[in-house]
Amino acid sequence: MFTNLEHLGLAVHDLEAATALYTTLLGEPPYKKEHVASEAVDTVFFQVGGSKIELLAGTSPDSAITKYLTKKPEGIHHVAFEVDDIRAEMARLRQEGFVLLNEEPKRGADNKLVCFVHPKSAAGVLVELCQSISPTDHE
Ligand SMILES: CC[C@@H](C(=O)O)C(=O)SCCNC(=O)CCNC(=O)[C@H](O)C(C)(C)COP(=O)(O)OP(=O)(O)OC[C@H]1O[C@@H](n2cnc3c(N)ncnc32)[C@H](O)[C@@H]1OP(=O)(O)O
Ligand SMILES: [Co+2]
Fold first, then answer.
1. Does residue 41 have its Cβ closer than 6 Å to ligand 1?
2. Does the CB atom of residue 129 touch ligand 1 within 6 A?
3. What's the rounded Cα separation, in Å, for the pair 51 and 33?
4. In-domain check, residue 139
5. Cβ of 54 less than 6 Å from ligand 1
6. Residue 98 located in a structural domain
7. Which of 50, 99, 121, 124 has the greatest CB tally within 10 Å of its CB?
8. How many domains is the chain built from?
9. Where is the VOC domain (predicted)?
10. Of all atoms in ligand 1, which is nearest to the CA of residue 120?
């Protein structure tokens, strides 16, 4: 089951400048900064009610964010939904004909298991599924 709009992922060139801008915009500083080596990104998270803003900057030319920003301007890169059972939702979406970008859930930022749905199968929007896990869980 989809349970929440977990975060909006925003692709930015300059993480420090974007962090300062969003701190002013939202009136609160971020609650977390995290490097995710598997995605080659640095992230900054802001809480907004029950959802979050995730700022993302690529840390290598191979990063999906770096590649995206060579073709597109800064802005909304993906929409992330919280799910209660990521494997069940992946199986359901596959059955419905969506193209998943991961065979298995992978470790994302902020203590989540994540899986991406190709934008070409989701009306032009890159969709991320997220399931919360304990910080000590390893998959
Ligand atoms: C920090 C971890 C995690 C979290 O916990 O929150 C994250 O959020 S990580 C975020 C970064 N990681 C990812 O995005 C991983 C998933 N993405 C991918 O695998 C790829 O980016 C992609 C979506 C498969 C695209 O890669 P690729 O096919 O190599 O790029 P192209 O430039 O050739 O794009 C093909 C096609 O798709 C369109 N596109 C690409 N990205 C997006 C996007 N974010 N939103 C909408 N559309 C997108 C692109 O415009 C191309 O379309 P056409 O030009 O019409 O062919
Ligand atoms: Co994300």
1. yes
2. no
3. 16
4. no
5. yes
6. yes
7. 121
8. 1
9. 4-132
10. 37
137 in a domain, yes or no? no
What is residue 138's predicted lDDT score, i.e. its pLDDT?
53
Closest by CA to 51, choosing from 4, 83, 112, is 4
| Domain-embedded: residue 120 | yes
Q: Summarize pLDDT for 55-107 with one digit per residue, the tens.
A: 999 999 999 999 999 999 999 999 999 999 999 999 999 999 999 999 999 99
Type of residue at 32 = K
**Could you tell me the residue range of the domain that residue 8 belongs to?**
2-132
Ligand 2 centroid distance, CA of 97 (Å) = 22
- Please report, for the domain that includes residue 30, its CATH number: 3.10.180.10
Ligand 2 centroid distance, CA of 130 (Å): 8
Using alpha carbons, select from 65, 79, 91, 58 the residue that is nearest to residue 130: 79
What pTM value is reported for the model?
A: 0.97
